Task: structure prediction
Amino acid sequence: MSNRIHEQYDLEDELHEECGVFGMYDFDGGDVASTIYYGLFALQHRGQESCGIAVSETDGPKGRVSSFKGMGLVNEVFTPETLEGMKGDIGVGHVRYSTAGSSTRENAQPLVLNYVKGTLALAHNGNLINALQLRHELEYTGAIFQTTIDSEVIAYHIARERLNTKSVEDAVIRAMKKIQGAYSLIVMSPRKLIGARDPHGFKPLCIGKRDNSYIITSESCALETVDAEFVRDVLPGEVVTITPDGIFSDTSMCKPKEKEARCIFEYIYFARPDSHIDGVSVYHSRILAGKYLAMDSPVEADLVVGVPESGNAAALGYSLQSGIPYGTAFVKNGYVGRTFIKPKQSNRESSVRVKLNVLAEAVKGKRVIMIDDSIVRGTTSDRIVGMLKEAGATEVHVRVSSPPFLYPCYFGTDIPSREQLIAYNRSVDDIKKVIGADSLAYLEINRLGEMVEQLPHCTGCFTGKYPMDPPTIDIRGEYQK
Amino acid sequence: MSNRIHEQYDLEDELHEECGVFGMYDFDGGDVASTIYYGLFALQHRGQESCGIAVSETDGPKGRVSSFKGMGLVNEVFTPETLEGMKGDIGVGHVRYSTAGSSTRENAQPLVLNYVKGTLALAHNGNLINALQLRHELEYTGAIFQTTIDSEVIAYHIARERLNTKSVEDAVIRAMKKIQGAYSLIVMSPRKLIGARDPHGFKPLCIGKRDNSYIITSESCALETVDAEFVRDVLPGEVVTITPDGIFSDTSMCKPKEKEARCIFEYIYFARPDSHIDGVSVYHSRILAGKYLAMDSPVEADLVVGVPESGNAAALGYSLQSGIPYGTAFVKNGYVGRTFIKPKQSNRESSVRVKLNVLAEAVKGKRVIMIDDSIVRGTTSDRIVGMLKEAGATEVHVRVSSPPFLYPCYFGTDIPSREQLIAYNRSVDDIKKVIGADSLAYLEINRLGEMVEQLPHCTGCFTGKYPMDPPTIDIRGEYQK
Amino acid sequence: MSNRIHEQYDLEDELHEECGVFGMYDFDGGDVASTIYYGLFALQHRGQESCGIAVSETDGPKGRVSSFKGMGLVNEVFTPETLEGMKGDIGVGHVRYSTAGSSTRENAQPLVLNYVKGTLALAHNGNLINALQLRHELEYTGAIFQTTIDSEVIAYHIARERLNTKSVEDAVIRAMKKIQGAYSLIVMSPRKLIGARDPHGFKPLCIGKRDNSYIITSESCALETVDAEFVRDVLPGEVVTITPDGIFSDTSMCKPKEKEARCIFEYIYFARPDSHIDGVSVYHSRILAGKYLAMDSPVEADLVVGVPESGNAAALGYSLQSGIPYGTAFVKNGYVGRTFIKPKQSNRESSVRVKLNVLAEAVKGKRVIMIDDSIVRGTTSDRIVGMLKEAGATEVHVRVSSPPFLYPCYFGTDIPSREQLIAYNRSVDDIKKVIGADSLAYLEINRLGEMVEQLPHCTGCFTGKYPMDPPTIDIRGEYQK
Amino acid sequence: MSNRIHEQYDLEDELHEECGVFGMYDFDGGDVASTIYYGLFALQHRGQESCGIAVSETDGPKGRVSSFKGMGLVNEVFTPETLEGMKGDIGVGHVRYSTAGSSTRENAQPLVLNYVKGTLALAHNGNLINALQLRHELEYTGAIFQTTIDSEVIAYHIARERLNTKSVEDAVIRAMKKIQGAYSLIVMSPRKLIGARDPHGFKPLCIGKRDNSYIITSESCALETVDAEFVRDVLPGEVVTITPDGIFSDTSMCKPKEKEARCIFEYIYFARPDSHIDGVSVYHSRILAGKYLAMDSPVEADLVVGVPESGNAAALGYSLQSGIPYGTAFVKNGYVGRTFIKPKQSNRESSVRVKLNVLAEAVKGKRVIMIDDSIVRGTTSDRIVGMLKEAGATEVHVRVSSPPFLYPCYFGTDIPSREQLIAYNRSVDDIKKVIGADSLAYLEINRLGEMVEQLPHCTGCFTGKYPMDPPTIDIRGEYQK
Result:
């Protein structure tokens, strides 16, 4: 039994989100572990490498936390016995895909620790840009680190600030003055549940309610899954503290709205389409992306298809705008799991074909517009276009519902090094040839704002202009084994 | 560690196929286990309870078979080490969902056995209707049974007939004279690979080729997955014998074409849409089903949606025919696995909602036509219609791409007892009320033939008229624990 | 997860017993699985490769058997949940080390099967010498075999004889007329527990009682472990049938006493010293062996030590007889388990030293008599004598509490091929030199009878004279993969 | 799969050691993980709950440590693949039985961490008496704790001291000024292996050599197991630093010899008899204990027996001194493993009898002297004496090779609370009656010094006089969940 993941179980050429968080506090004292389980299950798309839950009894001894973490999917890690053994009316859960920190069980979250005021559990989505520098600073005061995740850096700052503050939420706020980058954070102290979102609002975070329970989580789809109502989004820079005495909001770290910098890829690809983030429907923004592609890059064709799953909504938008019929061109094998054995180079089977097959019946003799949400290295696009043609498509026009990637992301999206990006040093026409398409167009960068009702967002990976200065030392270095 | 599956990981109210088979013979002597693995992976939708592979070296000692079976998905049961340890240029694999025989590791297939002529491995899809009677007859001659699967009965007959025949394929043919019911069968003897399909052709079986290898498998999608060419379907009643000396066909058991009785549910729901069965595209037949529903049961609406995944193609057909826009109304959580913990009655979470969420954005304020492939007990339909309405759909019109279930299946489809069927003793109008739809229509029974280019098919579950007399004793009895 | 055992966890140069059996019938209807578990635990020394339990409810449906088998030790295979799930007042268990049939889960026992009269479970210790011939005969009547164990051959014969007999015990008796070799057998039919011992009595079998329950098992130590009383041994050739109506004995297959041929290695090495077999204490017979060695092969020395564990009792006997003090010279590491990683050739660590260390303090400057129960290949003896000398022993005199092995065993003891036996083609003096001892003596063959109160026993492995003709074809052939 | 150990696999009424450590540095650059594995295997008796290994390449990047930890025995946790994946010429391993800190995977050692100077791995045997106080002090400077083991407290102090010292060994020395209690410690820094033993020398630690490798480990038996030479013991208070430039010793923390306070139970029970600790043979000291018992508490009898395994050496000593023959009275079932299912109260089987059976043959009609190493609660002794009498012993005289337990241990031995100790508030005569013995005597306390060649040792658990003041707050409190 290994504690490493050997295989990714998606199409190879996709981006990866790093985490999803789900915290809950039941003022009626009911056990929350089971609901957190279903909440994490709804967030599974945000991270499939490891997951964990930590719960505590607010009327129990202060330091008593039950936690369980493991490598793999939520449904692989937790058994009915494990869940039943986790007693507590306050808790926090996490699913993880690692961009920083290696994928080992040690790095799974939530991080549970003892500090001067008892116990703390942290679950965190995002990437700090000054984590390495903060680590070094802490080490120079004698700190020791047992993981390679940013959460440990955040925890240290909260613990230290707590010495001089009158409440844990104040410690969180003071810690936020030090840490820089993207973070949506849930902190569970013995009797408080705290949600904090970085001032740029890179990553989503929202509040829900069910009967006498409150929930803080990454995406609103998780609220619907557990039959809770959406209350509101946590504001960029806001710290929300949930206690039986009420919900308290601190907005002292909030920035002017124009400084906000949501990750646009949440809308394009990461988030589930049934989520709303900061008031904008993810699904609707994808439909719009497809419509804009149809307006800006029209082409004559017989059929519009999406690369499943995330290309489907944009394909529908393209179809609605253009009047060209929408269709299904691919069958995706949904049984690829963590332990799936990838075909070797020497096998006749190919990884892409094993996971995705073309519906020849649907595309034969047709001019096909294929919508994908992004092209990273281009390796998968190349295969898929080829498969469509083998299946009899007479033309394949590729439309991409995002602009070309040209720059690294420092805030939590796992973009390969520049040299591996297909758009690096290549014109759109060159890329078209590489992937074998008859035409190719990307979403224009000025459409991004329209897609999300002009919410301020980050376009760093397209433009190289980031909402804050990227780190001068390589944050993928020493600690990011 | 349990050897039983506790949870089904699909929507509760679906039918289950029982098996998929994949056999391969590489005349160049290459190892086939790895390709069988990917082939089974492509057939995973046909059975998720257990799986297994058996291989043999045709130039090795006659009785040397390597086999490995286990409970769970193909990617859970096999490790790279297991596959690499399986040396052999001839082999057969199986995925299983149990309708007859309990779901234990003992009952996993292929069945591997020694008999008078050496070794035999069998993989079998279907259900015999005289299995119990044949078991009793065999027992009265001193036979012992170590499993509760039909394959053991078939194996016994082949072994006995082999005493008086000059080849194993002749023994298979003589055994076929005794066994009655549905079966698509692959038999691996030390140096021959044999495929046999029952004379009614209930279950699919086809032949493929890759370089100097031949493949026999349940569905053509498995051929595409391993980059093999489709050669042809095995005929109902045909026995195909693959040897290095050539491929031999025996059609002595074939019936006149009008006696054939394909399972229509392969087209409606079981098979993968990218498969062709007996010359008919599964995808195309589903599109047609949708079109017929649009012709026969039109309704004014703003949107046509499918219940994923199998309702989507029919929804597309309905949209194409009616001109009403096609859309996506549901997000299905693809991470439900074998060990997923079902919500208890006492949980606020519901099993349906955890697996399927409505895209409120897509349906709000709209009149929705929802296409499902079948309604069995109606429990899921009820929930889904309710969820659409909660999400703001003003009307929900349900169209079902198959006729109502009214009778049991004796040939391998796991239909609940009559009393549990929603259509039993209820008019369509009654059912409409039960599931809360604004209108409801089923595919008309005479459309089934049109759907499949008039291929003869079985309609027993709709009409109670079966292609052969059902058993008088309960075949779900004693042995089907 | 492998289904093969990669490592043996004992000193390499030991013989292996093949099986232990434990059956129980509680006339008060209590569950027996848990007691069978502890019984098997007491018999674990008889087989460590796989184990299993099958139970049935005598007042339940006739064909309902719960069984669980797995590779590994009793405490590895069974969990509290597994045991609790096994409901039944009659049951049988088995521990296995394979001499015939490969070590796979398929070959684990008890064998559970359906036959003309319902269900049968079999557990069997021993080796048939005509198994292969019987298999072939059965195959020529159309039988199929799914395992490579003798038990399946026995089961077939019982099933066939049952067609013409009025009871299952009669079928067992008639089957015994066909099968030849060593067997102690427990058969569980729906409402009877049957014990049978081959007419030569190679393997032990005895009866116990606890309250209103009866037990049949391999060794009396298992009775003491579960707090049951020893009732009596099953006679060689006897069939004992336990039913609520009484215990019935059939002795029609018994031979004259002088034909009996107990395996003498049960006394020398296999059985636990706290067992009595056929009225003779295993411990006492080992003490006697040591005494005879002292009488027949005396030597001046300072210390007598045993090679643990089985050499200790003979060492004590030697000490008592000779007056030379008994001591402990070795520390055995008891934590070697099934998954222990053997040192490679390239490692500095040696397999023997990792498992056994010399107590230098005890032997330094002393003349040591080292008693071992047997020398097979001599590889371990060589190492151990060397270790004693390195630790400072001035002389090492080896005494072996059995005669030299010269011939194969056909009745269930796993003796290597003749060429590998150190005594083959070597004089005692040669062997002495090979293992580096200062003197060497074996137990004289005429002492064996004295050791066991003149009970008739088999000396085939020493003399080549067997109680029945050995098979002319190699029984380690085709089926014994 | 649980991450807790449910069952102890020894006789219930034994004491538990808490840990064993094994570090190795190969100056020739060879991989050490495999040798550490066998070293830990030899130390398995010191801790069976969890184990781990961490290794590093001294010529690799400074922060690169491979580590693997898990619950269970060494042979259960490590696979050949795991070991082969661990590349490094310097490493440290640990086996653990928890007295402080809960038995979870999080608390398994070695502890691996990053600090200001790179990476550190710690393995530690012993118990600090000021750990809780130090934790609190650290927390008041902002420290966070992720485990409940003392090693984390030690690590923090080393990390903080390192800020003001020029080498890691100096930091270890300065940390030793703060921590109080029992510790034998191995620290692996990127290019140094450091061993430190507390100034009282409670726990053993010694140095070995093999070719161009150095080893630091708990017991000399581990050196023999891996074919290394014993070099010398680490002195109480000494810090030994192993580098390619030489071995450096710092003795600045050593106390005058009379302040040393070795744990006497290492000699009586914990250590393996083939180990030497501080120049004294463990085996020899046990022989002596038996001799003293024979001198001080003689009794007429026919047989002296030991309670296996640890009572055997003292029984031999008693026999040698008294002239009463030594014998074996018990058969211990060596197959009890971590997952063994303990008999419930409602079972007829008893935990003691399942693990230990009496050799009736050996004791029948005899007056038996039974030597045990200690009596804690007395529950097992009671059962064993009873079993001897049932088996026919006419008298049972119990001799204990240690004085009665009366006080808690604060230094790492898991002694139950006072009320549970059989000797608490009872005279020896009372205890004799409770356990049903015919006579009872303990080793006299003044014999302890003679047993160990007058090495200074701790007698706190017998006398309540400790080598340092016990903690005033309960160290089993808050953190020792």
About this structure: The radius of gyration of chain C is 23 Å.
